[in-house]
Design brief:
CATH architecture: 4-Layer Sandwich
Order of helices and strands: EHHHEEHEHEHEEEEEHEHHEHEE
Number of domains: 1
Helix content: 25-40%
Bound molecules: zinc ion
Strand content: 15-25%
Structural class: alpha/beta
Strand order of the largest sheet: 6-5-4-3-2-1-14
Distance between the termini: 5 Å
Largest sheet: 7 strands, mixed
Shape: globular
Length: about 325
């Protein structure tokens, strides 16, 4: 194993949990499932819970995008959505590796859902800690300083005790962070947004959130095609259903079917879909998953009928706290 990804937040646009009413419906469904399965005893509860799987039971989480990518020798963090607060707690408790850093935070872009957790990343306030920010956008430093600006946050950037460094990346040019190689490629999203290809010991992680996936063919992707080639695990934007994509053109988010098409063609082994809509209940994300399975099976069966070799792809919808090793 060369890379371990932990998804501290997988929701898109705004931190959002299903409402208390939605939770009531969900819990009612779980209880009905217990009795419909012919189970009656309290001693059978744990087994029933174990059989459901994390997201079926507890949903997908409320926090927005923040991903920890660990290699044997180092760690980077991609984006500072509200999920970075939980990572911060782990770091400060000493459970998530060295609390003194240095920390390497790569920013895809600066929409609220990707920066809202940054002021709650406690290492910012610890003297002696080194924090490195990276982004392709030349206004990286200005954008990060703004997150700590009064009256939006009480502690101004100038008062932070840590030492903060800014690194503006060149598009499609690889930089090394210890034993990891990180290369930014452009995604299809307003303002704009850059995905990251992370490599270590011949394992490749492709971070492709946020993207609409308007460019799909190899010709359209052009110089950004390497983001999707030779990839072990791709993290892809699937905020919408396939029909919603047409209604929400230029909103900058995609559907799982688009990601699967790219994965089939490029031989990507594993895909996790995320950036779940803030309004989506557990059942709605599960419905997206059902539609994706229908499409996946249809693609495989059609390929079989036409004697077209199609690589199976292992895929699922990401939930908060998910850890994947490649
Ligand atoms: Zn987003
Ligand atoms: Zn965005």
């Amino acid at each position: 194993m060369s890379l371990t990804m932990k998804y501290w937040g997988v929701r898109g646009s705004l931190p959002s949990s299903p409402s208390p009413g939605d939770w009531n419906n969900h819990i009612e469904g779980l209880l009905r499932g217990f009795f419909n399965a012919g189970l009656r005893e309290a001693s059978q509860v744990s087994k029933y819970i174990d059989s459901l799987g994390t997201s079926h039971l507890g949903g997908y989480g409320a926090a927005t995008t923040s991903v920890e990518v660990k290699s044997p020798r180092s760690r980077i963090i991609i984006d500072g959505g509200s999920g970075i607060r939980s990572l911060s707690e782990q770091i400060m408790s000493g459970k998530a590796g060295a609390s003194k850093g240095p920390f390497h935070i790569f920013m895809t872009h600066f929409h609220w859902d990707h920066v809202i957790g940054l002021p709650f990343f406690t290492p910012h306030f610890v003297p002696g800690v080194q924090i490195h920010y990276y982004a392709v956008q030349p206004d990286l430093e200005k954008n990060i300083r703004r997150v700590f600006e009064k009256p939006y946050f009480p502690v101004p950037f100038e008062s932070l005790a840590s030492k903060i460094h800014f690194h503006v990346l060149e598009p499609r040019k690889t930089i090394e962070v210890d034993d990891m190689k990180v290369t930014p490629y452009k995604l299809d999203h307003p303002d704009p947004c850059w995905g990251f290809r992370v490599e270590c010991n011949n394992k490749v992680y492709a971070h492709c959130v946020d993207t609409e996936g308007t460019r799909v063919s190899r010709e359209e992707l052009g110089e950004d095609l390497p983001l999707y080639q030779g990839v072990d695990l791709m993290y892809f934007d699937a905020q919408y259903t396939f029909p919603e994509l047409a209604e929400k053109a230029n909103w900058g988010h995609s559907a799982a079917q688009v990601g699967l098409d790219i994965a089939f063609r490029e031989g990507i082994k594993q895909v996790y879909f995320a950036h779940h809509d803030p309004g989506a209940t557990i059942q709605q994300v599960q419905e997206l998953k059902r539609q994706t399975l229908e499409y996946y099976d249809w693609r495989l069966n059609t390929a079989k009928e036409n004697n077209e070799g199609l690589h199976p792809v292992q895929w699922d919808f990401a939930y908060e706290g998910l850890t994947v090793k490649i």
